[in-house]
Amino acid sequence: MTSLYAPFDIITGQVIGCITQHQRAKGVLVFLQQIERSTPTGLYLHVILDNSSTHQTTVIKQWLEKHPRFKLHLTPTSANWLNAVEGWFAQLERRALYRGDFTSVADLKVAIRQFIEAHNEHSTQPLMWNKTDEAIIRSVHKAKLSVMKIN
Predict the structure, then answer these.
(1) Cα separation, 55 vs 123, whole angstroms
(2) What pLDDT sits at residue 63?
C-alpha cells in the first residue's frame, strides 16, 4: 500500500510531500518524522489530521511524548473541510492526476513529486479563510441541525 501525506504550512503555503509504503501507524510515524526533519527546531508544530484511528495508536502516542513540540488536532468525522490541506489535495487531483495515464505506482509517484515541486516553486501563498469566524460557526451550526433532523 502506498500513502501520500502532505504537511501543508498555512503561513507559507509550502507542502512537504511524504510518500510512504508503510501501512497505518507506521506510515503516520514516517510522516511525523519527516516533518521533524524538515522544520526548524524550536517551533511548536500543530498538525491537523483526519479522525483515523491510526493517528491515535500507542506507537504514535509514545512518539509524541518524546516530541513535545508536536500537537495533533483531529478533525471531527465528516469535517475534513477544516483541514487546510484538503484544498491542496483537490488541486493535485485536478491538475496532476485527473485523466492521468499512469502505468505504475512509480509513475504516479513521479507525477505527485513533480506537482509538489511546481507548487512549492510557483504557487505558494498563505492560507486565507474567506469567511469570518462568525460565518464559519453559523455554517457548522446549520450543518449540525441538518444532521440532527436526518437522525
Answers:
(1) 29
(2) 96
